[in-house]
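Colleagues,

For the teaching module next term, I've prepared a clean inverse folding example: a structure given as tokens, and then the sequence designed for it. I'd like students to try predicting residues themselves before seeing the answer, so please don't circulate the second half yet.
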């Protein structure tokens, strides 16, 4: 029986993927590394510990990794943070889930300082029981650490929780943590890529999931 839902944030509840990708693209290029917007976008959903090695050698990461991450975070905060918008119906979806007795967590590869801002932007701070972020984990998605931390804080077994995310990395992390996952298309990944990564169902976004909630794997396993 499902007892908890664990949400990703970026691209799942908040329309932030393109802006995150743009800030990473600019950061790499500022340090002389030719990483296109499209290449960076395909990696959004991972934390810097997995994203940087996709494009840089160990030597380059040792030399510039921390600086690139700091530059990226500063650019995102000063130029793009104000442009973020939540997806529609997110508070309504979380309220409905809470009304049927489910616990709610947000488990993001973002840093804690970023996640705190996002919770307020989306308007769900009072609807979330626990949060976990990259600061709570040795390794970010697609490794399971962040989801495992959320499960521990919730006090829920993996087979009693469902993860919801927009990237294959969310689905892969959920599977490694022993959870089922549901995908949403609002982050820009294809339905097939989410299914291939292990999602048991895929919806266009939070509003569509809310509209179809009674027929979803969430409610089918909650009754």
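(Answer key — instructors only)
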């Amino acid at each position: 029986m499902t007892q908890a839902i664990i949400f990703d944030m970026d691209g799942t509840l908040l329309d932030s993927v393109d802006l995150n990708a743009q800030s990473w693209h600019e950061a790499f290029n500022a340090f002389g590394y030719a990483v296109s917007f499209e290449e960076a976008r395909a990696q959004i959903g991972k934390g810097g510990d997995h994203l940087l090695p996709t494009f840089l050698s160990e030597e380059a990461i040792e030399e510039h990794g921390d600086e690139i991450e700091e530059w990226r975070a500063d650019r995102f905060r000063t130029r793009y943070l104000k442009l973020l918008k939540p997806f529609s119906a997110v508070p309504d979806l979380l309220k409905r889930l809470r009304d049927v007795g489910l616990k709610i967590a947000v488990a993001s590869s973002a840093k804690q300082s970023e996640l705190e801002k996002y919770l307020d932007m989306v308007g769900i701070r009072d609807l979330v029981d626990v949060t976990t972020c990259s600061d709570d984990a040795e390794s970010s998605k697609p490794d399971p650490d962040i989801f495992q931390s959320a499960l521990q804080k919730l006090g829920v077994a993996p087979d009693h929780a469902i993860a919801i995310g927009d990237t294959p990395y969310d689905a892969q992390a959920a599977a490694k943590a022993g959870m089922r996952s549901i995908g949403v298309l609002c982050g820009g990944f294809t339905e097939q890529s989410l299914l291939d990564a292990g999602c048991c169902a895929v919806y266009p976004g939070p509003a569509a999931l809310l509209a179809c909630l009674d027929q979803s794997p969430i409610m089918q396993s909650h009754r």
